[in-house]
Amino acid sequence: MAYLDNELFVIALTDSQSLYWLPEGPNGMIAVIDTKTVELKEKIDIKIRPFNIFAGKNGYLYVTSREPQKAYFNSYSRSTKEFMDSELVNNECLSEYNPTLDRIYAIPIDIMPIDYKVLNVDNGKFVSSYSSTYYDSYPLAEKFKISPDGKYLFNSSGVVFTCNENVNEDMKFAFTLDKKFTDIAFNMEENRFYTAVGGNQIYVYNYEDFSGIDTLSSTGEILKLFYVDGKLCALSRSANGRPMFEVIQKVKIKYGDVNKDGRINSTDIMYLKGYLLRNSAFNLDEYGLMAADVDGNGSVSSLDLTYLKRYILRRISDFPANKK
Ligand SMILES: [Ca+2]
Ligand SMILES: [Ca+2]
Q: Are residues 7 and 125 in the same domain?
């Protein structure tokens, strides 16, 4: 799927029975959907089995196919619906379009990925291509994303490369993140990016120097991560397997408010005591457990109860967890 100027481009197969590529097609199409009315506006027939689509500069669409041991890259004009050009790569590939450099980066997925294929485009024409240098020293995974400013390519193995107009400066090693990721989202306004690192964990990084800033968590297991309208969102899967759409927010813990009613009082002592005595009526949820750890040592114990009692008796004015 690709988006440009209120149009959504969706690729589809038109001859689903055929398992193999037929040179005489057409066996695929681009459905142009008006995002305002959510109606099908037009169809563009394409003679490849579509796998990926990108909306490039000046209204040109680039579609890739995935066949055994090869990938076709075709281009079409959005306005005239005409076929423009085609390029063949002798590997099945996953690709991404770099909007700043008007270039497609592709990684082979039918062999151990060791390099990127780079295809320069210009108004729908494939003008030049080259392979990046051998990345023997860096682990590469199939999935990758290009930052919205087109400056970096983030491989899901955690290795980050530069993207540069100049071939000799292109695909240079830039950084290795502390953990591999399953998806990545960018917040360019605040110079941050977020990686889903497995399960419900999200790492927050500074985009300027790639330093780690924070960790966040979602409720479900993350399938996809997005940053839209100033919010970090995730498409995730709940414990019972249902898909969910979540807005990820940093939960501000009010230490001592074990029952989450906004106040810190004797009721919280009752809840914490009940929990420590394993009374099933006082089962604490995830938030309750975090709020009960008032000394901030990572676990809930009788020591936390002592702190909570002293706080309520005004012997202490703050919890150690708030000072961390
Ligand atoms: Ca409370
Ligand atoms: Ca504790």
A: yes
Taking the centre of ligand 2 as the mean of its atom positions, its distance from the CA of residue 232, in whole angstroms, is 30
Question: Which of 251, 275, 304 is a domain's end point?
Answer: 251
Q: Flag whether the pTM goes above 0.90.
A: no
Query: pLDDT exceeding 70 applies to what percent of the chain?
Result: 96
Ligand with an atom nearest the CA of residue 256: 1
**Residue 117 φ then ψ, to 5°:** -95, 135
Whether the CB-CB separation of 57 and 102 falls below 8 Å is answered with: yes
Residue 262 alpha carbon to ligand 1 centre in Å: 6
Distance 291 CA to ligand 2 centre (A): 10
Q: At 312, which helix (H) or strand (E)?
A: helix 302-312
Mean pLDDT of 115-125: 95
203 and 300 housed in the same domain: no
**The domain containing residue 233 runs over which residues?**
183-251
CA of 322 to the centre of ligand 1 (A): 16
Q: How many A from CA of 264 to the centre of ligand 2?
A: 16
Phi and psi of 307, rounded to 5°? -60, -45
Q: Residues 190, 43: one domain?
A: no
